[in-house]
Amino acid sequence: MDMIILGFFTGLSLIIAIGPQNLFVIEQGLKKKFIFSVCLICTLSDMLFIFLGIFLFAYFSSSNQLINNFLNIILIIFIANFIWDKLKNFSVKYETRVDTTDENFLGVILKTFAFTYLNPHVFSDTILILGGFSKSFSYIDKLNFGLGGSLASLTYFFLLGYGSSYFS
C-alpha cells in the first residue's frame, strides 16, 4: 500500500504542471465537448508510459538524449503551429463560445493524441523520472508504484476535464 501512495503522489507531483496537454484538457472541458474521450486517452496513454518507464527504464535511459532531442524538435514544430493557429484567430474582444460547430470528434481525438504523444514532458515525466525513480524497486513494488501513478493520472485528468466543465 505504501508504494501505491508513493506512486500516486509522485505521479501527481509531475502531472500537475500546466502544459499544452493540460491546457487542451481544460479547453475541452470549458467547451463541454468530448471530455470523457479526451480524459480517457490522456489517462490510458499515461498508464502505458508509466509502466513502460518502470519496466523498461534501462532501455530508454540509454537513448535518453536522442529521444529527448527528437521529441523536442517535434514538439517545437507542433507548438509553433498551434500558437500560429491561435494567433490567426485572435481578436481584441474574446468571447467564450459554447457552441463549437467546427469541431468534430475525430479532430479532437487526433489533437488529443498529438498533445499527448508529441509532448516530451509526458515521456520525461513518466518514462524517465518515474522509471528512474523505481529502478531499484522489486517487481511487486514496481507494479504498485505504477498503479499509484496511474491512479494519479486518472484522478487528475478527469478532475481537470470535468472540473473545468463544471466551472465554465
The structure class reads mainly alpha
**Count of β-strands:** 0
Helix and strand sequence: HHHHHHH
Shape assignment: globular
Relative helix content: over 70%
- Beta fraction of the residues? under 5%
**Gyration radius, in Å:** 17 Å
> How would you sum up the major sheet?
none
SS element count, helices = 7
CA(first)-CA(last) distance: 36 Å
How would you characterize this protein structure?
The chain is mainly alpha-helical. The chain is built from 7 helices and no strands. The chain has helices at 2-15, 20-31, 35-62, 64-88, 105-117, 120-133, 139-167. Helix 2 runs antiparallel to helix 3. The longest helix has 29 residues, at 139-167. The mean pLDDT is 83.
Fill in the keyword field for this structure.
globular; 168 residues; mainly alpha
Entry summary:
The chain is mostly helical and 168 residues long. The protein contains seven helices and no strands. The protein starts with a helix and ends with a helix.
Please describe the topology of this protein.
Elements: H1 2-15, H2 20-31, H3 35-62, H4 64-88, H5 105-117, H6 120-133, H7 139-167
Helix pairs in contact: 1-6, 1-7, 2-3, 2-7, 3-5, 3-6, 3-7, 4-6
